[in-house]
């Protein structure tokens, strides 16, 4: 940017820049189509925009240093958390569902149970399982799909 300009934070909420060049004062901004416009402004208008920027900086510093730290409570931390903590009900329900799944898996034939374990819990692909068992991927795929259907029926009973 040309000329001298006041210090200010750069962010998406500052739609304009003010600066001084050769004892003339300017404002530059982009319009809705993205075209850059530069206009000469009076010293009074420059000072007004400058004071707005200084007021904004003061306010942002107050928020950063005081308000933000005073609101660090458990509820605010939970709101900010990337992964929300699970409620007790969710944890208990998940454990019950996992137990029901393991119980239902016990009724599956050994081969289907092993393939389900490899595919869903160990993250292997059909091809990897087939290679490990010495067959093609289609029998593995059909076996896993049949096991899933059988588990769905069993879990509906519970």
TrEMBL record:
Q: Where are its TM segments located?
A: none
- Output the Pfam families linked to this UniProt entry: Sigma70_r4 (PF04545)
* Gene Ontology biological process terms from the UniProt entry: DNA-templated transcription initiation
UniProt xrefs under Gene3D superfamilies: Winged helix-like DNA-binding domain superfamily/Winged helix DNA-binding domain (1.10.10.10)
Reading the lineage from the top rank, the first entry is: Bacteria
MF annotations from Gene Ontology: DNA-binding transcription factor activity
- The RNA polymerase sigma-70 region domain covers 104-153
InterPro entries per the record? RNA_pol_sigma-70_dom (IPR014284), RNA_pol_sigma70_r4 (IPR007630), RNA_pol_sigma_r3/r4-like (IPR013324), WH-like_DNA-bd_sf (IPR036388)
- Report the protein name in the record: Sigma-70 family RNA polymerase sigma factor
């Amino acid at each position: 940017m040309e000329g001298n300009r006041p210090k200010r934070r750069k962010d998406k909420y500052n739609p304009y820049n003010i600066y001084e060049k050769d004892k003339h004062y300017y404002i530059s901004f982009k319009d809705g189509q993205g075209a850059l416009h530069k206009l000469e402004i009076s010293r009074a208008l420059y000072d007004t925009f400058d004071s707005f920027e200084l007021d904004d900086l003061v306010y942002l510093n107050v928020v950063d240093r005081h308000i933000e730290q005073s609101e660090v409570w458990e509820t605010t931390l939970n709101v900010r958390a990337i992964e929300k903590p699970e409620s007790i009900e969710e944890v208990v329900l998940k454990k019950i569902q996992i137990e029901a799944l393991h119980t239902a898996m016990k009724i599956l034939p050994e081969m289907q149970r092993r393939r389900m374990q490899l595919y869903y819990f160990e993250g292997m692909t059909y091809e990897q399982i087939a290679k490990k068992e010495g067959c093609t991927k289609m029998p593995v795929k059909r076996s896993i799909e049949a096991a899933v259907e059988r588990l769905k029926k069993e879990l509906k009973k519970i």
